[in-house]
Structures are given as C-alpha cells and as structure tokens.
Amino acid sequence: MNNGDSYLESLLSNRKIVRSYKKVNFDKKTLNKIASYTIKIPTAGFSRGIEIIQVFNENTIKDISNLFNERKYTEQGKDPWISHSVALFFIILNENAYHKRYSEDDKAKAINSNDWDVPYWFVDAGAAMMNCMLLLEEQELSSGFMGLHNTNRKSVHNLLDIPEDYLIMGMITAGVENEVNPKSSSKLQKKKLIHNEKFSK
Ligand SMILES: Cc1cc2nc3c(=O)[nH]c(=O)nc-3n(C[C@H](O)[C@H](O)[C@H](O)COP(=O)(O)O)c2cc1C
Fold first, then answer.
1. For residue 190, is it within any domain?
2. Within a domain: residue 195?
3. Is residue 55 situated within a structural domain?
4. Which ranges constitute the DSSP H helices of the chain?
5. How far apart are the first and last CA of the chain?
6. If you take atom 9 of ligand 1, which residue's CA is the nearest one?
7. 158 alpha-carbon distance from chain centroid
8. Is any atom of ligand 1 closer than 6 Å to the C-beta of 122?
9. What are the strands, taking DSSP E only, across 118-191?
10. Would residue 194 count as lying in a domain?
C-alpha cells in the first residue's frame, strides 16, 4: 500500500496483461480458491450462467498451448507464454441459463433475454475475468487474457469436455512474469475516459 493507495487500489494499479512467463515450480495449492471467488459475481437475474474451468495439469496446459499455436510465436522469437503458465482459467458462458431464468414467472414483464440491447452474459463474464485477474495479482502472479478468435474452438471444447452449447469467453493465463518491461501503454496517446458529471470531449 504505497502512495496512499488502499489494498484494492494497489492490486488494480499493479495488474497488467503479461504475455511472457518464466518456467517455474509453483505451489498450486495457493490457487485453490481462485475459481470459486472468480465466479462470485452478480449475474443478470441471478441467472448464474457463468462458469469456470481451472486447469493446473502441466500436460493439459501444454496441450492447450499447442491448440493456441504457441509454437508459431516462439518460432518468431517471442517468449513462451501459455505453456509456461502455472494455471489456466477458462470463463465459459451458458447463455441458455439466462433465457431459462428470464422465462420464469417473475420475469414475465421483463424484456425477453433474446432481445436485450446489451447481452448481459458478456457483462457478467467480464466481471468474472476481472475477479480472476485481481485474485491472481493478490497471489503475486501475473495474468494474461487470450480470446479464441484465432483458435479452433471445437478443439478446445473437445480437450476440456465443454458442452457444445457453452461459449468459451476466453482464457486467463497465470504465471510469473519473465522480465519487467515498461508498460507499453505509456507509448500510447492519452485518451479521455473519465467524464465529470456530464459527458465531455
Ligand atoms: C476482452 C479482452 C480480450 C483480449 N484479447 C486478447 C487476446 O486475444 N490476446 C492477447 O494477447 N491479449 C488480449 N487482450 C489484452 C489486451 O490486448 C491488452 O493487453 C490490455 O487491454 C492491456 O491492458 P493492461 O496493460 O492495463 O492490462 C484482451 C483483453 C480483453 C479485456
């Protein structure tokens, strides 16, 4: 807690996406509560359609890194990332849980969940992602995020026995950062993201 930051503020301030991990031996027992607190989130209508798969097994982590074509990146000189993770966490969405919940009697007057302008399952999944990253930060591990837009989804479903009607929102990697690089975002132009009282340009 430096700079007068609270504990939560310091976790938020230190967290950053890291894509290069050292190969380490890590006591995974310290991670046994990550999954349950990751899904400690509010969900629309308390639908509870967000689930998580935690992967600690080294062989499975290796298989997953192959499915994500890590070798293509290491051959280009990039550092290993997924394969050196001490754990991987998949946030998976059960969209049907939302439709089922919103077809119950007490939701008869609510807008049909098929017509939502904001699909709340993505909102809830994002909340879980952030919980997971902060819980890892608390364990002094770095985290990264990998979407499946360049990966054969079916192969991941098959490997992890994920039912077809679930959507894998993404994978959170957990590891020990290889070397401390200055934040790349410092090169980026500053963007106004906070508005006081009213939206302003
Ligand atoms: C929803 C989402 C999807 C992302 N997808 C990927 C991805 O597929 N691969 C990747 O390397 N980084 C991915 N990222 C990470 C971002 O590209 C980027 O590193 C991050 O916004 C930087 O923020 P930070 O340095 O404050 O952590 C994703 C992040 C989010 C939130």
1. no
2. no
3. yes
4. 7-14, 34-38, 58-67, 70-74, 95-101, 120-138, 153-160
5. 33
6. 146
7. 20
8. no
9. 142-146, 167-177
10. no
